[in-house]
Structure formats: C-alpha cells, structure tokens
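Re: [ENG-882] Designed sequences occasionally contain unexpected residues at chain ends

Forwarding the minimal case from QA. Structure tokens:
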C-alpha cells in the first residue's frame, strides 16, 4: 500500500512539474565528444547519423537500374550528405546502400524513415525485398512491447512453480511494476529541472 501511494504521489507531482524528455548525445570533456567534434570539423559529411537500405532478390540479380534510381532518390532526401554506390553480394542477389546524414540522429524524426521507405520503392517495384537499418531506423522504430510481455509471462510461470501460489508469484512482479512506475515518474520529474 505504501509503494502504491508513493507511486501515485510521484506520478502526480511528475505530471504537474515534470518536463519533456530531450535526446542530447553531447557530453563535453569526454573522449567520444572530442572525436565527434573532430569529425564535425574535418569530415562533416561523416559526422551525422547513418542508415542502410538493403535489397534482396530470390529470383535473380538485383535490378541495377532500380538500385541506381533508389540511390538518386536517397541523395535528394533532407540532411543526406552522402550515399554510397550499391555494394553487391558475390551472387548479385543482395545489394547494400549506405546513407550518411549531416545531422545527429536526435535531429531526425519518423518522417526520415518514411522517406527512406519511399526512396526504396523502385527496388520494391522491381520485385525485390527491401529492408532498412542503421541509427535512424533503430532510433525511430519503437519496440512493440511483445518481448516484454513474454518476459513477464515467463517470469510469472517460473515464480508460480517456485512459490506454489499466485499471490506469492505475483508479489515480486507487482513490486517491480510499482518500482518501475516510481522510477519512470521520478525521471519525468527530474526532466522538469535538468537537461
């Protein structure tokens, strides 16, 4: 009961005083930040986010003309600084196109993934399977939560075998859920006062 009251209290305070989350990957004074600053200064085209477009054909070689059109479309996307020529596998059935951006991944949004999808449309029209990867896609594409639900379900089954009752098995999971709620609300509350 005390934990539930604490969760509700922290959630209420966080709702009124909490701030929005902001992704900022700068950390002055660290080695990784110095490396990023050097890239930005000397190689700006290589200092931003990256993405990959992979096309595969089960029936034969990847259509070279479709890949060329996709490269042209990718080069026209906002903030794209470089697109590599398609790297083709030895059997010619798979091709990889790497895309570099001139801004960090935190400056890109879900529209960036949609634009990548539309740029790969000539490859799909040619009958190829097209998949996306890289920082842009990984950051924007949110997990659907199925893995977490499976994990909680598996934990409940294991705890049920270990403790022999639903109450005893559910208690650790309930405590974890309340702790997660308090922690998440606490982070939201801190976001109201810090970067």
């Amino acid at each position: 009961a005390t934990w539930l009251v604490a969760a509700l209290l922290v959630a209420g305070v966080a709702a009124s005083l909490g701030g929005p989350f902001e992704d900022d990957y700068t950390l002055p004074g660290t080695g990784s930040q110095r490396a990023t600053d050097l890239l930005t200064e000397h190689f700006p085209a290589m200092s931003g986010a990256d993405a990959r477009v992979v096309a595969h054909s089960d029936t034969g070689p990847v259509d070279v003309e479709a890949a060329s059109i996709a490269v042209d479309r990718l080069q026209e996307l906002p903030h794209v600084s470089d697109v590599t020529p398609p790297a083709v596998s030895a059997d010619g059935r798979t091709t990889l196109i790497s895309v570099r951006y001139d801004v960090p991944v935190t400056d890109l949004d879900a529209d960036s993934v949609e634009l990548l999808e539309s740029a790969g449309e000539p490859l799909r029209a040619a009958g190829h399977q097209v998949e996306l990867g890289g920082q842009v896609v990984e950051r924007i594409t949110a997990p659907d939560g199925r893995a977490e639900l499976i994990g909680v379900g598996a934990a409940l089954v294991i705890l049920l075998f270990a403790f022999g009752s639903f109450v005893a098995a559910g208690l650790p999971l309930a405590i974890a859920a309340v702790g997660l709620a308090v922690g998440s609300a606490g982070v939201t509350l801190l976001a109201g006062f810090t970067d």
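QA comment: On inspection the terminal residues look reasonable. The chain has a mean pLDDT of 87. Proposing we downgrade this to a documentation issue.
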